[in-house]
Amino acid sequence: MNKNSALRIITITLVLLVGCLYALPNLYPTQPAIQIAYTDSGKSADQFLLDKAESILENETSGYEEIFLRDNKIVIKFKTLDQQLESKTALQNKLLDQAIIALNLEPTTPAWLKDIGGKPVKLGLDLSGGVHFLLEVDIDSALQARLEVLLDNYRKSFREDKLKIANSSVKDLALSFEFRDTESYNEALRAYRNDSIGINGGIQYIITERPSRKTLLLKFSDVAIKEIRDYAVGQNLTTLRNRVNELGVSEPVVQRQGANRIVVQLPGVQDPTAAKKIIGKTANLEFRLEANSRTSPLRKEEFNFKDNDYRTAFLERAVVVSGDRVTNASTGFDESGFSQVNITLDMQGGRAMQKATSGNIGRGLGVLFVEQKSKSELVVDELGNKVIEQTSYIEKNIISLATIQAVLGTGFRITGVGSPQEASELALLLRAGALAAPMKFVEERTVGPSLGKENIELGMTSILIGFSLVILFMALYYKVFGLAANVSLVINLVLITGIMSLLGASLTLPGIAGIVLTVGMAVDANVLIFSRIREELKEKDPQSAIHDGFSRAFVTIFDANVTTLIAALILYVIGTGPVKGFAITLSIGIITSMFTAIMCTRAMVNLIYGNKNIKELKI
Amino acid sequence: MNNNIPFMKFRKIAAIASIVLFSLSVLSLSFKGLSLGLDFSGGTLIEVTYEEAVELEEIRNILIENDFDDSQVVNFGSNLDVLIKVADQNGNSSIGESIFNLLEDNGFKGELKRVEFVGPQVGSELRDQGGLGMLVALFMILMYVAFRFQYKFALGAVTALGHDVVIILGFFSLFSWDFDLTVLAALLAVIGYSLNDTIVVSDRIRENFRSERVLGPQDLIDLSLNQTLGRTIVTSLTTLLVLFALFIFGGELIKGFSLALILGVMVGTYSSIYVVANMLMSLSITQEDLAVPEPEGADFDELP
Fold this sequence. Notes:
Shape of chain A: elongated
Largest interface: A-B, 70 and 70 residues
Largest sheet of chain B: 4 strands, antiparallel
Structural class of chain B: alpha+beta
CATH superfamily of the largest domain in chain A: Multidrug efflux transporter AcrB transmembrane domain
Number of strands of chain A: 23
Strand content of chain A: 25-35%
CATH topology of the largest domain in chain B: Multidrug efflux transporter AcrB transmembrane fold
Distance between the termini of chain A: 19 Å
CATH superfamily of the largest domain in chain B: Multidrug efflux transporter AcrB transmembrane domain
CATH architecture of the largest domain in chain A: Up-down Bundle
Oligomer: heterodimer
Radius of gyration of chain A: 33 Å
CATH class of the largest domain in chain B: Mainly Alpha
Shape of chain B: elongated
Strand order of the largest sheet of chain A: 15-14-20-19-13-16
Order of helices and strands of chain B: HEHEHEEHEHHEHHHH
Strand content of chain B: 5-15%
Number of domains of chain B: 2
Number of helices of chain A: 15
Structural class of chain A: alpha+beta
């Protein structure tokens, strides 16, 4: 009786093996490293950049350990932190704006472990230090802006048709037109129905007719609102990703959350103010007229072209329209099949453009791309530590210079932009500078690096102390059985670590608390079994007591844990950030503790007592 | 353990104690309310570590002079760490930095350890979500217990959980401890834990009702409670051991969390002994209630 079946032995061995294997990467220390990527997010790092970086490192620094290409980046590993800092400065000052250089810590996981997907547990922001921003995209103002453009277009079209408008306005996210006479009203309605105005291309509106007041109301349909919202959030996401890239953070997270929010997480960022400035900035595109012979030297500036270092042009100092007025930029083809870029401005931008271009047909219109860059220098601070000091500067380059063919408004196009690929690059740059709708910060959490380290230490200390206390108690109270339970507890911790690493779930401070709590609760299943065995012993011989104790406790353990799992899952759904971390470790802990108590403790007890003739059982 | 404590003899006293605690909690919650943490109230919080102890009063005065009227300044952990909380100012997200700079200009040089800003809308959303989550959790658990056991147990279990949650909230309200997201997480964990206990006890009651035919309900419940007492105490003890480790060594950030759990384990242990059993007694549980269910389902005619 109480022998281990082959199936149980195989299951336990397999689970343990996999658990240990994936927990293993956490034992390897991290190593200082640098990641290099091209500033242009569309371009992957190549051999050319690698050779360049290698030669800089060899000529100007005291050395490095390894340099290689991975994904879209170059990774350089160092033996010491000093080497890392020194190399970052050297690289940054040589590569300047070509490349983004980010400091990070590379795990030293051996290749064979990496090949099977092994990686150390990811740390949440409260443990690694860094910033978390939650931004809200203001959809209403995106809708408002679109309605204003529409209002203008309709007005123009109605005027051309000689319709008499008494009043027109945008109010409560609806367009309202009041006509002077019924004829105009009917004509406008007919025009709208025939879609002869042709400005509502694709987007659906809901029209409300009020013949008695000769008023037409135009509203976005729900589908249209969703479309506009998705476009605005998607566009802002792209813009934010580009901006975050400028920050040179090694593993940033930029994600949509819910209908109209965006989460930005920047682990390891030391200066949240600078990060906020770059993320929150609005304009980084400028439309300016090209300077001509009559422009006074005081009112013009010379700029380089972005794609050609040797070409320059003079533009007027005055900015006609800035990037935050661009609502869309897409590529298309003109009548003769050449690529072109279509640009849409908002109302205000359209008016400014109209004013600026009306007397200037034939002149050039330049588009400047504005970037915030940073230079770094290795300096020694008051305490004698080497630190990197960053100074930021602004760089402006021309991405397009085209001749004005007609008076421009809210919608215009740039032709002669080269190949379709070049056109789409230009459209991307135009969009990159723009936010489709304004955003505001609705949540911010910054954890300094020292607090992160402190949190890890505190968490680890509490796990160790709590764990030792429980182990001691179990060994004293349940003796041999207690030891079996303790082995299960250790296995439990290893499994939690392994699963966390495998899932790539982040460990947070409440997450550590979840593990500590699991340790306390994990013994529960064992305690249930043991006290059941004690009871059974009163009536039965030791072997059947062990057998019945385990099988009877199983139902109870199952019911009790399923309900806790329900609570943990709900917590996962409603929680954010650190609290989600707690829900994750708690859920994993419940499952692993059930497994270890039912399978592992049983196997050990069987190993010790199985198939033997026991007269007395100490429990 | 060979004990024979007549638990149910004291059930009236226990009921009175529970009702008193519960009512006090409800009173405190309705009149004093909870002191909501940043997550729910919205606003800005900064934590700064200074090299030497600073006078909190001076910082308070500087803040008031600069129109940060609705602010709290407290030590956090040690007297070098200062926590400043400012109420929301129209969703302005850069108050944290302004305050830190303001204090630096006034000669308070330190290291900025943490800045948290929660917009008013996010705060109220988290509040709604938290409350909803709690209700959904209770409901799902009610369904599960009703499905696995019987509705009288489900009512007992949910009463016990409501009892635990309200009393812990009562403590947080009465002592004005900060109620934030981590405390909410702890509360949900308490639901899980207390339920764990409740189910173990209920499971035993069910088993005894099915197998014993001689004893009456009161003696059967007493027997079950005594049988599970050893396990109840050991589990509570090990859980409390780790929770105290967390409370003492886990740092300021999770003090509220561990406190809520410590209270929760204590109240939960008590409620699994008394509240559930009390409910079962007052719903006059009978052997028929727990007969192995027949295909037509349980007979619900015996409601008191």
